[in-house]
Design a protein that fits this description.
Length: about 60
């Protein structure tokens, strides 16, 4: 799954853009767009300091029930 973006949490820091190995993250004034180039590596999700990017596998859920 391509990461989900939560605009209200984004601080426009640019961290996600810098870590993407395939330049799939487009950032414009606090709005992130992930393009079809995404290989679903979750690096941007892990790099985001505010949790504005999430995926089905990150962050890990503490409670599996
Ligand atoms: S999941 Fe990986 S490939 Fe996709 S946008 Fe994030 S860093 Fe780039
Ligand atoms: S790393 Fe997170 S807070 Fe920073 S620009 Fe990307 S989505 Fe926004």
């Amino acid at each position: 799954m391509i990461p989900e973006f939560h605009r209200e949490l984004c601080t426009d820091c640019g961290g996600c853009v810098g870590v993407c190995p395939v330049d799939a993250v487009e950032l414009w004034r606090g709005d992130v767009d992930i393009t079809e180039a995404c290989i679903e590596c979750d690096l941007c999700v892990k790099a985001c300091p505010t949790g504005a990017l999430t995926s089905q596998t990150w962050p890990p859920t503490e409670d599996e029930d």
